[in-house]
Automatic annotation (TrEMBL):
Presence of keyword Amino-acid biosynthesis: yes
Localization in the cell: Cytoplasm
EC assignment: 1.5.1.2
Pfam families in alphabetical order: F420_oxidored, P5CR_dimer
Protein name from the UniProt record: Pyrroline-5-carboxylate reductase
Domain Pyrroline-5-carboxylate reductase catalytic N-terminal: 13-99
Pathway(s) the chain acts in: Amino-acid biosynthesis; L-proline biosynthesis; L-proline from L-glutamate 5-semialdehyde: step 1/1
GO cellular component terms, semicolon-separated: cytoplasm
Function comment: Catalyzes the reduction of 1-pyrroline-5-carboxylate (PCA) to L-proline.
Native source species: Sphingomonas horti
GO term, biological process aspect, one: L-proline biosynthetic process
Molecular-function GO term, any one: pyrroline-5-carboxylate reductase activity
Chief location category: cytoplasm
Key words, A-Z: Amino-acid biosynthesis, Cytoplasm, NADP, Oxidoreductase, Proline biosynthesis
Length: 270
């Protein structure tokens, strides 16, 4: 078992869909013993061998050490009472619900020893995701960080407003990048490439370029200049993206729209 998990007691996942399922996959791949995990989901479908899977929050059991709330924000009301009844002072409640504020969670789960918001993204399944954190976890900080570290880059938000901004960038971000890959592939197809080949090239190109940027001390701007030979092909393409800061403007509006929706959701669940 990896050191990260050696001190970790029972962990319950309430909801185990796209996002909590991706986190669980990585935790298991990284050495979390499946018998420590209980998954609660209405379908009762087991996400992995050895993981206890039940349809409802267990009653009359010792409270878990960590409870990950992974349902849709709209389902909070449906699960809140049974979760509140099952947790105790030893429970750290980790919510990945977008747009549900810490104060709302703390009020609903007042028995929990610690309440924290986490905003992961789906690449955590590969251990190459991002997890933003916000909350007051006191002496449980190291334990929480050890749990999140195998998922990828872990960053604390200075305040809840910033947490929402991090959610817009990194939580939603994979979807925006998938659109970008699609758009590059479609553009390649428009040039004349076969569609399947254009998608393969676009995906591999984004993967490689992201890896280069992640492993480099240079800024993305410098890396772009290294691709663009003076008087060459790339500069003509960059001129289109840079004209009127077209790409930057598009993404500024994209992230602002996502961030705005997060604040609306917070108001709706307050
Ligand atoms: N998708 C993403 O990229 C990200 C999502 N999030 C947050 O993660 C949360 C989940 O999103 P996502 O995984 O995409 O959604 P999914 O629809 O994929 O998963 C929802 C899960 O909730 C379960 N569920 C529904 N009702 C109940 C219930 N009454 N009791 C227990 N479990 C229940 C479902 O069970 P079953 O499987 O049996 O149907 C399912 O496992 C959201 O709050 C979202 O804001 C945060 C960051 C990124
Ligand atoms: O779309 C959503 O609301 C969630 C939050 C971040 C990614 N998915």
């Amino acid at each position: 078992m990896d050191a990260e998990f050696s001190d970790l007691g029972p962990i319950w996942l309430v909801g185990c869909g796209n996002m909590a399922g991706a986190m669980l996959k990585r935790w298991l791949d990284a050495g979390l013993p499946p018998e420590r995990v209980t998954v609660i989901r209405p379908s009762g479908v087991s996400p992995a061998k050895g993981v206890r899977t039940v349809r409802q929050v267990p009653r009359g059991e010792a409270p878990p050490r960590v409870l990950l709330l992974g349902v849709k924000p709209q389902k909070l009301g449906e699960v809140a009472d049974s979760v509140a009844a099952a947790i105790g002072g030893e429970t750290m409640l980790v919510s990945i619900l977008a747009g549900v504020e810490l104060a709302t969670l703390s009020a609903r789960f007042s028995k929990a020893g610690a309440v924290v918001r986490a905003m992961p993204n789906t690449p955590v399944a590969l251990g190459r995701g991002v997890v933003a954190l916000y909350g007051e976890v006191g002496s449980r900080k190291k334990e929480l960080e050890a749990l999140m570290r195998p998922l990828g880059l872990v960053e604390w938000a200075a305040n809840e407003e910033q947490f929402g901004q991090m959610a817009a960038l990194a939580g939603c971000g994979p979807a925006f990048l998938f659109r970008f890959i699609d758009a590059v592939a479609a553009a390649g197809t428009a040039l004349g490439l076969p569609a399947d080949q254009a998608l393969r090239l676009a995906t591999a190109m984004v993967d490689g370029a992201a890896g280069l940027a992640a492993g480099s001390d240079e800024s993305p701007a410098v890396l772009a200049d290294r691709v663009a030979s003076p008087g060459g092909m790339t500069r003509k393409g960059l001129d289109v993206l840079d004209d009127g800061a077209a790409l930057r403007d598009l993404l500024t509006r994209t992230l602002a729209a996502a961030d705005r929706r997060g604040r609306e959701m917070a108001a709706e669940t307050r």
